């Protein structure tokens, strides 16, 4: 059952599940390398702090034995140039993509993240966040997309001398706030709901570097960013999981079920809510996290979702550049069936998204209740076959350059532009009408003011 709470201020009911999944041998806690510097006091302190599964992404082109390094940092210091001192070291080359995955030997939990940027060193998506607390059987996945249009002005200069935009800073600050919030949730000193997360976001944003622009306007924001994630709690005895999606803006969270496919859990904060129409129009957001205006962290609560399942959070670089909403699910499953490890799946996804997206793209994936990745793959095979038959049949040849696979050449040879456009539009409509009901099963209702 799903209880919808727009801008709700109530957390999920407290629950102490059975021991599931059992923690791996010597379950890792967070280390200084896996937590942003300002949060290390929370992560590494004594007294029974939360044990988390997770860490920074690894550059996709790094050698197998390379240490894990995050592609970006969290702003920490005042606006302006660093104090005079020794000459600055040569700027280090930052990767334009990174992937991370669990080691593959944890039964019941497999995770991966993918992060890419269009301009090296300037990507406005923060690194995806994935954490699981073994002691209370709960966790969070989340992504953060700095809003480059509303926050394009430079606000912070890093130690390397490079200036970062408000969007760049905003997404990193939101990630840090979410990280620190979940540490407190895992310690049961904060509720796992939108009100407490909002407080953390608001506090961290007020402490972040800002520069007031002389250029005003209704679209300008200080440190604007989206957030989309899912807080979950495994109910071991029932074999189900509580889900609480949390979001602001137009990034999305999903749950995938082997029998029914991909279900969206969030509704974009835009005046248009039809997923196909959103691909065609890309309307402005009506709500975004920022430092200078009121914002809402939206939510809904799903008390019991059957396992196994896969939780997904993605910025619009993944789902905003496809031809129809079903394409995103097809991308996930077509890469999964070619992968033998979590890392391979992450790297295949990274290669695919970089081939078609026009934006920075970040993705977090967490599978719950499966034995291993092979179990995820085998359980999804029937859904992959069904999706291929329903949504690839009749695909116009004009879409061949997309990453989505096979198309049919219409009788009569190549088409002119107008005919091709008409065929594409008709195919999109047919695909969407077939796909929509299942996809929107858990879509939250629209706010009253937009109905």
TrEMBL record:
Biased composition (Low complexity): 29-44, 61-79
Basic and acidic residues bias: start-end ranges: 385-407
Entry-linked SUPFAM superfamilies: PP2C-like
Residue stretches of biased makeup (Pro residues): 19-28, 80-93
Superkingdom of origin: Bacteria
Region (Disordered): 1-100, 385-423
Protein name, entry field: Serine/threonine protein phosphatase
Natural source organism: Streptomyces gulbargensis
């Amino acid at each position: 059952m799903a209880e919808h709470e727009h801008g709700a201020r109530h957390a999920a009911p407290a629950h102490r599940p059975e021991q599931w999944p059992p923690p791996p041998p010597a379950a890792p806690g967070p280390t200084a390398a896996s937590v942003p510097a300002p949060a290390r006091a929370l992560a590494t302190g004594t007294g029974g702090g939360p044990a988390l599964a997770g860490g920074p992404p690894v550059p996709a082109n790094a050698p197998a034995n390379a240490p894990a390094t995050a592609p970006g940092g969290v702003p920490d210091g005042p606006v302006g140039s660093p104090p005079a001192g020794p000459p600055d070291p040569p700027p280090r080359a930052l990767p334009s993509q990174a992937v991370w995955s669990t080691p593959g030997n944890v039964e019941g939990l497999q995770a991966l993240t993918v992060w890419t940027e269009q301009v090296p060193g300037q990507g406005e998506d923060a690194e995806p966040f994935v954490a699981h607390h073994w002691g209370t059987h709960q966790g969070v996945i989340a992504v953060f997309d700095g809003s480059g249009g509303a926050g394009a002005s430079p606000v912070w200069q890093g130690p390397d001398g490079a200036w970062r935009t408000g969007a760049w800073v905003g997404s990193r600050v939101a990630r840090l706030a979410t990280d620190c919030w979940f540490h407190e949730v895992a310690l049961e000193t904060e509720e796992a709901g939108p009100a407490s997360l909002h407080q953390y976001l608001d506090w961290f944003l007020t402490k972040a570097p800002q520069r007031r622009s002389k250029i005003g306007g209704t679209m300008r924001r200080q440190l604007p960013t989206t957030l989309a994630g899912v807080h979950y709690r495994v109910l071991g005895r029932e074999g189900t999981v509580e889900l609480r999606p949390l979001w602001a803006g137009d990034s999305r969270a999903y749950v995938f079920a082997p029998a029914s496919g991909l279900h969206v859990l969030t509704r974009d904060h835009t005046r248009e809510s039809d997923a196909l129409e959103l691909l065609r129009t890309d309307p402005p957001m009506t709500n975004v996290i920022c430092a200078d205006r009121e914002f809402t962290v939206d939510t809904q609560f799903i008390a019991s979702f059957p396992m196994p399942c896969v939780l997904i959070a993605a910025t619009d670089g993944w789902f905003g550049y496809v031809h129809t909403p079903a394409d995103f699910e097809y991308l996930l499953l077509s890469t999964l069936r070619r992968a033998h490890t979590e890392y391979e799946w992450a790297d295949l996804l990274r290669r695919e998204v970089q081939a078609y997206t026009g934006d920075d793209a970040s993705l977090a994936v967490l599978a719950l209740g499966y034995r291993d990745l092979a179990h995820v793959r085998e359980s999804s095979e029937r859904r992959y076959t069904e999706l291929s038959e329903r949504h690839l049949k009749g695909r116009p040849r004009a879409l061949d350059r997309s990453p989505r696979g096979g198309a049919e050449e219409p009788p009569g040879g190549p088409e002119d532009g107008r005919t091709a456009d008409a065929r594409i539009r008709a195919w999109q409509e047919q695909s969407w009408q077939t796909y929509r009901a299942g996809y929107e099963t858990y879509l939250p209702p629209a706010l009253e003011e937009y109905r």
